Amino acid sequence: MAALTMYPESERLSAGERAAFNLYMISAVILFVLMMLLGVIMRMAQGTWLEVPPDLFYQFLSMHGAGMVGTMGMVTTAVMWFFLRKYVNLHLWAFVANYVLFLLGALCIIGAIFLGRYAGLWTFLYPLPTHSMGMWPNASGAWFMIGYLLIGVGMLLFYLDAAAGLIRKYGNLGRSLGVQWLFGGTIDPEHPKAVVASTMVIIANSLGILAGAVVLVMYLVGIAYPEFKLDPLVAKNLTYWFGHMYINATIYMGVIAVYELLARYSGRPYAISRPFLWSWAASTIFVIIVFPHHLLMDYAQPRWVSITGQIISYSAGFPVFLVTVWGALANIHRSGMRWTMPSRLLILSMFGWAAGILPAILDGTISINRVMHNTQWVPGHFHFYLLLGVLPMALALMYHVMGSYRNQAPNSGADRLGLPLYLLGGLVFTLAFLAAGHLSVARRMSSHLPEWVFTDQMGAAGAILVLLAMIYFAARISIGLLRGPVSGHAAHAAA
Amino acid sequence: MIAGSVAASLVLASPPARGWLESSMSAQMLLQLPLLAAIGVCSASAIPAAVRGALARWDRWGISGLLLASMTSLVWMLPRALDAAVDDVGVAAAKYATVPLLIGLPLALSWGRAGFVLRGVFLAETIATCFRLGWLYRVSPERLCSNYLLDDQQRLGDWLMVIGAALFLALMGKLLLGRFDFRTDAQAQEGRH
Predict the structure, then answer these.
(1) Residues in chain B within 8 Å Cβ distance of A222
(2) In angstroms, rounded to a whole number, what is the distance separating the alpha carbons of residues A349 and A389?
(3) Residues 6+ apart with CB under 8 A from A492
(4) What are the residue ranges spanned by the domains of chain A?
(5) Which of A219, A95, A163 is nearest to B123 (CA)?
(6) How many Cβ contacts (< 8 angstroms) between chains A and B?
(7) What is the Cα gyration radius of chain A?
(8) Residue range A128-155: average pLDDT?
(9) B131 in reach of chain A (CB within 8 A)
(10) Do A167 and B132 touch (CB under 8 A)?
(11) What pLDDT score does B191 carry?
(12) What are the pLDDT digits (tens) for A395-405?
């Protein structure tokens, strides 16, 4: 079975593909280090270990949020591309165009923040991008939004190319998602999980990008035509539809690495099933309409929308999470797993996703949300599943590709030291956020009360450990990918 | 076909038809402009093969044609242009010339050359534009055209929202459950490799 070949020929990277893959991955690890550095500075400032003026703090927070979300989107797009190209025809130009537009968008965002002093955060709330009370000019808000638009257009180009490939092979997106097998029939055991997950992401995130394309342009219209006022609640709904969908999509793109790689390291096939197809079909719908769980404190929102937000937040990610984690545990149980860096990172990602989703579901409960939503509980939950769930999925692929160049999975002593450091730092960092949420520490505040400083300092200490580990990973991965395949050893990358 | 297109243009330009089609903002934008563009689309079959071949060299993958149609549409979406086309005969003449020739005709010629991605971008942008303009017309506190009243403008906003939603649902239905024939754009796809 092809899935159990560690480095199959179908994953061979041509010279052009390898260059594009390296651009994505090396840019991503460098950006992660830089964004983590900003995060460390902010946590140290909150912990009174550093003096950071409030205006600069909010610029850092804007850069950290937008930068992390964008980079997570970029790196998991590369994960999806790497595996999906085996099954359908993807054009390299679309993958490269996404990268170029991402970089242009990133430049606009960096310029808006560090030259234009934009500090309205990544999920700006109307009328913030344009009514800064003199903190930054309207042009900065405009450039920030243009940056988002460029990133969205790039991702849409990639998704359209992927959709074309899927439709050519499977007929339509319904069939590539596997809906023809939901109620019966014999499931094609060769139908790739990567195809199912990619279809879901294409459908759901394209809608989010469309919502963003509408509301961001309307914000820009508001700059040119100040008499035009948006309904703040509609603007917030659309902004969250776009932003929440975008960051959620990173999990579903990243998890493709688990589906594709885990079976190779466990040596046991990871078969597709009807519950798997049902969970992805259900999540395709639910994940599109789950964003109102971020608006439970908007009391002007119709009551039924908030209740829907709670119910859907229980059911949106849960089916996919359940079949994936259950499937992964069943797959590795007594399998004689080969514990190398890729497999360790894959299992870490399952833990990070599993543990990170629990505080998210708690926060999606209206009665808890009323108490917890404006506290550090929320950054606790999303840092948990992004840092310990999604990022390890992408790192696992990077290590796997490095292994393919040597025909041997990486597992050096430094790797074995770096990973526990990352895990320990990540746990201290995220649990400090969650503990602060438990203590009702407000989020998005540059200055903290003395009673809050202890958890800030704990978080800063954890963040420093994560940063050190990530610096090591970034150097190791950049060098490993740039070295490329060793002739005579590379199973699939000798182009 | 050319004669038919000219005749249709003349009928649309006749005072009774023009008066009725420009009597409201909704009619001008949602009936008159699409009818003029349709005349351009229908005229495409009358273009000689040699001319088509010459145009195709400047319209690889349909990018130039769809860009031209988009840019021209952008002009005729502006309330100021709609207003001027009612008040000024020169602008009206420009509308009768440019909408068929620079929107309808290039759309007909370029659509077949465009691949899935370009068509997708074009349709997504069309849907987004319907929602943006619809939103703008619905909530703008001022009349944007001096010839049309605020309620007419808001009605147009509602219609644009409905059209955007209908286009969106049709596109989603097609992508999820529809049938696709890629042979029509095989040539364009060939060119991508």
Answers:
(1) none
(2) 4
(3) A7, A8, A9, A10, A11, A12, A13, A404
(4) 2-483
(5) A163
(6) 73
(7) 22
(8) 92
(9) yes
(10) no
(11) 44
(12) 999 999 999 99
Task: Write down the ipTM of this complex.
Answer: 0.89
pLDDT in tens, A85-98: 999 999 999 999 99
**Cα–chain center distance at A352:** 13
Contact (Cβ atoms closer than 8 angstroms) between residue A2 and residue A260: no
Chain A touched by B139 (CB under 8 Å): yes
**What is the chain A residue with the closest CA to B161?**
A214
Q: Contacts of residue B193 in chain A, CB cutoff 8 Å?
A: 91
Kindly report whether the global pTM for this prediction surpasses the value 0.90: yes
Place A126 in a pLDDT band, splitting at 50, 70 and 90.
confident
CA-to-CA distance for B172 and B181, rounded, in angstroms? 17
The model's pLDDT over B148-187, given as tens digits with 9 standing for 90+, comes to 999 999 999 999 999 999 999 999 999 999 888 775 544 5
B142/A contact by beta carbon, under 8 A: yes
Beta bridge partners of A375: A442
Measured CA to CA in angstroms, residue A413 lies from A217, A401, A416, B4 at distances of: 51, 19, 5, 80
Cα distance between residue A333 and residue A335, in whole Å: 5
Of B120, B121, B135, the CB nearest to A218: B135
Q: Residue B124: which of A161, A210, A221 has the nearest Cβ?
A: A210
- State whether CATH 3.90.600.10 applies to domain A2-483: no
Tell me which chain A residues have a C-beta less than 8 angstroms from the C-beta of B116: 160-161, 163-164, 167
Average confidence (pLDDT) over A361-390: 91
Contact status of B180 with chain A (Cβ, < 8 Å) = yes
CA B134 remoteness from chain centre = 16
Rg (CA), chain B: 18
Q: Which residues of A touch B132 (CB under 8 A)?
A: 214, 217-218, 221
